Amino acid sequence: MAWMKQEKVGTEEENVEPEVCPFKSSQLYNVESNGTKWPIVYHDSYNISFLGLQNLHPFDSGKWGKIYQFLLDGKLFNSKQTFRPSEPTESDLLIAHTQEYLDSLRWSINVARISEVPPVAFLPNFIVQRKLLQPLRLQTGGSVLAGKLAIERGWAINIGGGFHHCSGTSGGGFCAYADITLLIRFALEKFESIEKVLIVDLDAHQGNGYARDFMIDDRVFVLDVYNRNIYPHDGFAKRGINRKVELSSYVQDDEYLPLVKKHLTESISECGPQLIVYNAGTDILDGDSLGCLSISSKGIITRDEIVFSLAKENKIPIVMLTSGGYQRSNAQIIADSILSLQHKQLIGLN
């Protein structure tokens, strides 16, 4: 989930373990999960819009609301049948982040670097917190909630999240909070019966944030399929990938889909996970100038079916995060994919 210039980021010295913080808050996941609601998480405040600055970034910062509306239009559910996340407290965020990193977000210039919108540096930080960082915090809370729902219901989708360039000590690529790390730490330490987690990252970009965070944690297995020629070129973080599938630019469906199925099948067999965290970026779509791959919209839908089908076949709970994608058509494709999963009975009320 990134769009910035092609430069190498990250150093070995930055790979610092965050402070150990007790689980003081259960508001992120302690919700009533009943069969009348779909395990789909969304909040109107996911969407980012202020002073037109969102137009300075190629990412569609209203994508999440469009996905939700397309799903409403497709009659998958009504507005009372989905879950709304809570915003993480600082104590919650410290489970994934160092205090030093969270303190750095109180400086707008640092947030401007992470969000890759330079004018943000000149805004008062209280505006940056409310208009930019709060939506990202809500999406982070949504990922934790979706993880809990997936464990309870077999599957869940956060219509947001997937900030895979953020680690406990550093953000970048429009990723200010390490929602994947936070979700997994909750799953391993707070939720029941989770001893092994498989991250399946099919965003076009290398997922370097969580790879740094879990580099020495053998409870987390990483399958990352990405374009080797684009951001972030994080050589150190590659050491944290258990199964690395590096693609050339402009790979098409006929090569990509068999690779995904083969490596996911083998990864499941190798690590035996109790939870799959699926980072389902759509920047692999043909025409995305930042992902630089050539996967069709149908290929994205088939990809998601492969992942959910293998999860269901192996009886592994799966949580999907929508992650990156930089074309205005992405929202419709994501919604179409979710509707297709329901049509093929890979997701549903249960």
From TrEMBL:
Compartment list: Nucleus
MF (Gene Ontology): histone deacetylase activity, hydrolytic mechanism
Top-level lineage group: Eukaryota
Residues that span the membrane, as ranges: none
The protein's Enzyme Commission number: 3.5.1.98
Entry GO terms, CC: histone deacetylase complex
Location of the Histone deacetylase domain: 57-338
Catalysis: reaction(s): N(6)-acetyl-L-lysyl-[histone] + H2O = L-lysyl-[histone] + acetate
Enzyme's top EC category: hydrolase
GO biological process: epigenetic regulation of gene expression
Pfam families found in the cross-reference section: Hist_deacetyl (PF00850)
Classification via InterPro entries: HDAC_classIV, HDACs, His_deacetylse_dom, His_deacetylse_dom_sf, Ureohydrolase_dom_sf
UniProtKB keywords: Chromatin regulator, Hydrolase, Nucleus, Repressor, Transcription, Transcription regulation
Xref: PANTHER family: HISTONE DEACETYLASE 11 (PTHR10625:SF23), HISTONE DEACETYLASE HDAC1-RELATED (PTHR10625)
Family of this protein: Belongs to the histone deacetylase family.
Function per UniProt: Responsible for the deacetylation of lysine residues on the N-terminal part of the core histones (H2A, H2B, H3 and H4). Histone deacetylation gives a tag for epigenetic repression and plays an important role in transcriptional regulation, cell cycle progression and developmental events. Histone deacetylases act via the formation of large multiprotein complexes.
Subunit organization: Interacts with HDAC6.
Official protein name in the record: Histone deacetylase 11
Organism: Ciona savignyi (Pacific transparent sea squirt)
